[in-house]
Design brief:
about 180 residues; mainly alpha
């Protein structure tokens, strides 16, 4: 959850388990950016959002993961979101300051759960625009998301079938390396 807030070698300021989580997040980000389905999906947003197209695809993928009944059937996503918020709250001392500022809003508005809805995804687009240096409007992103919903969902499916086993292998590799250190 905090990897995007921890730049470069700052990861070494954290305990080994958090360092492994940051490393895993970065590996998944690299895998995501290089995956053909992601490259194709980015093209939908690239004309309007250029380098930020990848960030919009991250939000799109979060939406489709949240709606994926194979991953989060019934109440599973709500329960998962509450568990994540409790873990984060119990480890506040390790949260970077910008994340600490954002966290109450994330928890109170249940951002993780609300990725499930199109309106929640639209709000996430708005948050992305507010935090971006050169963006001013999320309405185009919302329109592109709605207009290209099926192809974006297909990109997610192609991507998810590849990233899930990749992440599991990398997690085990990092954990094994940490145990051997």
């Amino acid at each position: 959850m905090i990897s995007d807030f921890v730049k470069g070698k700052k990861k070494f300021d954290y305990p080994a388990g958090i360092q492994q989580g940051i490393a895993l997040h970065r590996l998944i980000d690299s895998f995501t950016d290089a995956h053909p389905a992601t490259k194709e999906a980015k093209e939908i947003f690239r004309h309007h959002y250029r380098l930020y197209s990848g960030a919009f695809i991250d939000v799109v993928y979060d939406h489709f993961l949240a709606t994926d009944e194979n991953e989060f059937a019934g109440q599973a996503l709500f329960d998962f979101s509450q568990q994540v918020y409790n873990i984060l709250n119990n480890h506040r001392q390790w949260l970077p300051d910008p994340f600490v500022v954002m966290f109450p809003y994330m928890k109170d508005q249940n951002w993780l759960y609300n990725y499930r809805t199109r309106s929640g995804t639209g709000k996430s687009f708005g948050g992305l625009v507010r935090r971006a240096a050169y963006l001013e409007d999320s309405s185009t992103a919302i329109h592109l998301f709605e207009k290209n919903y099926q192809p974006l969902q297909q990109s997610y499916r192609q991507f998810w079938t590849a990233v899930k086993p990749f992440a599991q292998r990398e997690f085990e590799s990092l954990r094994t390396a940490g145990n051997n250190a």
